[in-house]
Amino acid sequence: MVLKTMRGNKSINTKPEVNLRKALLLAGLRGYRLNWEKALGCPDIVYPRRKVAIFVQGCFWHSCPYCKISLPKTHKRYWLKKLSNNKARDQFVQKVLKKEGWRVVVAWECQIKKNPNKVIDKIRNILRTNRGNIYTL
Questions:
Q1: Can you list the positions of beta strands (E) in 10-121?
Q2: Residue 7 has pLDDT above 60, yes or no
Q3: Are the C-beta atoms of 87 and 93 separated by less than 8 Å?
Q4: Which fold has domain 2-136?
Q5: At residue 10, does pLDDT exceed 70?
Q6: Which of 15, 29, 56, 104 pairs as cysteine with 24 (C-beta 3.0–4.6 A)?
Q7: Would you give the DSSP letter of residue 127?
């Protein structure tokens, strides 16, 4: 039952991704690529020339530090391991991309939903500057 439920969840073109992309276009921040396989982790949105990789993280699947969503009541051990592995993989990918000179942006589902303009402003500022490597919005 758990695996059947997980299969129903999309990994690309999720609602938060689509909403962020629409906001980027409205803000005039064009020129990005989607799910770019040339970068480790296949970032959701990439500005290749500027070496900016944006990961749109779902609050449940990636253990959002802002929402603190609780685990399902059944199969707790499974979910603890699954979400812990997701978090470890995210950190590994970000670390490797940083070493390769990428600026990594983590945009959380809740923040895109709550205040998309704030997320866009931060991304715009990151695209303008060459400082730092990992940004959590």
A1: 33-34, 45-47, 52-57, 103-108
A2: no
A3: no
A4: Endonuclease; Chain A (3.40.960)
A5: no
A6: 29
A7: H
